[in-house]
Amino acid sequence: MNNRRRALQRMGALVLSFGAMHRAWGAAIVGVRVWPAEDYTRVTLESDQALNARHQLLQNPPRLLVDIDGLTLDPALRELVGKVRPDDPYIAGVRVGQNAPRVVRLVLDLKQPVAPQQFALEPVAAYRFRLVLDLYPTQEPDPLLALIREKEGADQRAAQSVRDALGELIARVDKPVALPAPTPAPPTSPAATAPLQTKAPPSPAEPPSADEQRRIDRLIIVALDPGHGGEDPGAVGPGGTREKDVVLQIALQLREQLNGLPNVRVMMTRDADFFVPLHERVRKARRVQADLFVSIHADAFMRPEARGASVFALSEGGASSAAARWMAQRENAADLVGGINVASVNDKHVMQAMLDMSTTAQIKDSLKLGNEVLAPLGRVGRLHKRQVEQAGFAVLKAPDVPSILVETAFISNPEEEQQLRDPAYQAQLVDALTTGIRRYFAKNPPLARNRQL
Ligand SMILES: [Zn+2]
After folding, report:
1. How many angstroms does the Cα of residue 275 sit away from the middle of ligand 1?
2. What is the mean pLDDT of residues 328-346?
3. Which of 144, 396, 407, 408 is placed for a possible disulfide with 314 were both Cys, Cβ 3.0 to 4.6 Å?
4. Cα of 300 from ligand 1 centre, angstroms
5. Ligand 1 centroid distance, CA of 282 (Å)
6. 180 — pLDDT class (breaks 50, 70, 90)
7. Which CATH number fits domain 210-443: 3.40.50.1010, 1.20.58.480, 3.40.630.40, 3.30.70.260?
8. What pLDDT score does 196 carry?
């Protein structure tokens, strides 16, 4: 009996070790995330080992197959199915299945044709190995046309609401009044072209009309850049507040305020929770020939007692202080955490040449802008430094756009973390930034543009 028990124990040990070996061959999924946005939707699979995968696009209906080796279907992977949002611009749904003994197949049902990019990321910060699938549209929409048509749409909606309000008021007056019909006349009637007649905006594929081109040339375009986003949370406060969330809230409110100024249009480098690489933020601002670039942050610092707002511009030489250099290094690391497909940055050399261009004039204007913003910010809370600091921030390197990076407060300071969450405090910050930007434009009117589409 004893021998038999020992034999069984040995067998048990053997089975156990075989089980452990089996587990060691397969990777375990530690997290699945989906980041939907108009720009692109990202699907991230995070695992304890690097994953080997290949993908294939199929038509009728459009879908993306992804086969992942050395993986068994587990509950963590199945969670992906529930993570696709109904408003995802690209993904209609996800199915997962064990395609072969050690191959898991994901099927992404698509809402429109996509140009997928697949890449892997090594462990960094709090992340283990990541397998990333970015689904881009097959044709990139023109950002300038989108801006001008967004303004047209807003004007039309405003005109419509004025007409609705007028109609309602007059209807209440007890006498017949000749009013244009509130609903559009049939297209056969020439009277349909009344001044307030709304018409559907042209599709983005059409070239701009002469009227649109004049409006584009007259526009003052402010690029607002909420830092971080998606896989990159930015700094996280002691109470769990994420930098990427508060800076987006502030930027969206600032967009509302600035869009209320005559001829000003705001272009956001991101308007949702997704990651935008640093060079892409610069490229977006240059594509619309932005007159200004304002990057908004709320970082942590080495000491929790550090407090106050700071404003940064690019430096041509070294940083203006050790703290400024440290901050720039921190911000420049965003791409590592957010995750970029290095292979897809094929115009890397062109990018580098652009970033190395002389930026003396840009820095001079950026310092002017920075000083205009610093003064009203100092009346909201305290300032970390009384002058604009300078360091080599990658995101401020558009050679032809005055660019500043505003650290609104230190999220690592418990008191400032509370303030950053407070809508009233956010509104004060937004007012201060608006005041600074208006003063800069009043003293430095933007040059007339000839914006090419
Ligand atoms: Zn930041």
Report:
1. 12
2. 86
3. 396
4. 8
5. 16
6. very low
7. 3.40.630.40
8. 38
Separation of 228 CA from ligand 1 center, angstroms?
6
Is 0.70 topped by the overall pTM?
A: yes
Residues 259-289 as b/e (b if ≥16 CB within 10 A, e otherwise) read: eeeeebbbbbbbbebbbbbbbbbbbbbeebb
3-state secondary structure the chain: CHHHHHHHHHHHHHHHHHHHHHHHHCCCEEEEEEECCCCCEEEEEEECCCCCEEEEEECCCCEEEEEEECCCCCHHHHHHHHCCCCCCCCEEEEEEEEEECCEEEEEEEECCCEEEEEEEECCECCECEEEEEEEEECCCCCHHHHHHHHHHHHHHHHHHHHHHHHHHHHHHCCCCCCCCCCCCCCCCCHHHCCCCCCCCCCCCCCCCCHHHHHHHHHCEEEEEEECCECCECCCECCCCCEHHHHHHHHHHHHHHHHHCCCCEEEEECCCCCCCCCHHHHHHHHHHCCCCEEEEEECCCCCCCCCCCEEEEEECCCCCCCHHHHHHHHHHHCHHHHHCCCHHHCCCHHHHHHHHCCCCHHHHHHHHHHHHHHHHHHHHHCCECCCCCEEECCHHHCCCCCCEEEEECCCCCCHHHHHHHHCHHHHHHHHHHHHHHHHHHHHHCCCCCCCCCC
**Is it the case that residue 148 has pLDDT exceeding 90?**
no
Q: Place 387 in a pLDDT band, splitting at 50, 70 and 90.
A: very high
Rounded distance from Cα 281 to ligand 1 centre (Å): 14
- What are the tens digits of pLDDT across the range 284-330? 999 888 999 999 999 998 788 888 999 999 998 889 999 999 999 99
Cα of 226 to ligand 1 centre, how many Å? 9
Q: What separation in Å is there between the alpha carbon of 411 and the centre of ligand 1?
A: 10
pLDDT (tens digit per residue) in 71-118: 988 899 999 999 999 999 999 999 999 988 889 999 999 999 999 999
Domain residue ranges of the chain, discontinuous segments joined by +: 26-137, 210-443
Tens digit of each residue's pLDDT (9 = 90 or more) over 417-448: 999 999 999 999 999 999 999 999 999 988 77
CA 235 to centroid of ligand 1, rounded, Å? 7
